[in-house]
Amino acid sequence: EADLIIEVAHPSVTRTYGEHFLSAANLLVGSPTALADEDTERRLRGRAKLSGYTLYIPSGALWGGEDIMKMADRGTLRSLKITMTKHPSSFKLEGKLAEKDLSAIQERTVLYEGPTRQLCPMAPNNVNTMAAASLAAHTLGFDKVIGVLVADPSVPDRHLVDIEVTGPTNETTGLVFSVTTRRSNPAAPGAVTGAATFGSFWSSVLGKMFF
């Protein structure tokens, strides 16, 4: 008997076994790119509601996730864009993105820019931060949160996550509320995950989760 099941293997595990897990225990999805699939998210939320167990999403490398969710809750979140920059050797890509010859990249190259729903299945191991953000920004979701994936040979020792948030416009001044952050996470050459991500994930396990 378990109180909490933690998935940290691959989004396919959650897609295949998530409902079974939620029938027996709470589930923390360490690969939230799985929820970019609408059917998977619907099935898991439905099972959690029926079983009484909770579906948790860890913050991972997402900086400011709680603030993004608060803005969504208040209806003040207008847009969210996340740019992830890594060395080409740090990517594990699938689908159309797997056709790119990453070893041939000699300068900063944008691999993808668009809704996170289409990106998540093509980079399931690399963009869990974007998936977590898409869930926190629930008024925008995977279809309106914009993800940008960048391969840059000049950053072999760290992963960069730039987050751009916009909120409401002041009716008097016309000025727009905005927040921009950059997270520079040291990482070993070729590593999919940065060094600080484990600590963030562990904090989520201890209780700081989205839902």
From TrEMBL:
It comes from the Eukaryota. Gene3D superfamilies: Dihydrodipicolinate Reductase, domain 2. GO terms for biological process: NAD+ biosynthetic process. Residues 2-58 form the Aspartate/homoserine dehydrogenase NAD-binding domain. One of its GO terms (molecular function) is aspartate dehydrogenase [NAD(P)+] activity. Residues 105-197 form the Aspartate dehydrogenase domain. Belongs to the L-aspartate dehydrogenase family. This is Aspartate dehydrogenase domain-containing protein. It comes from Eleutherodactylus coqui (Puerto Rican coqui).
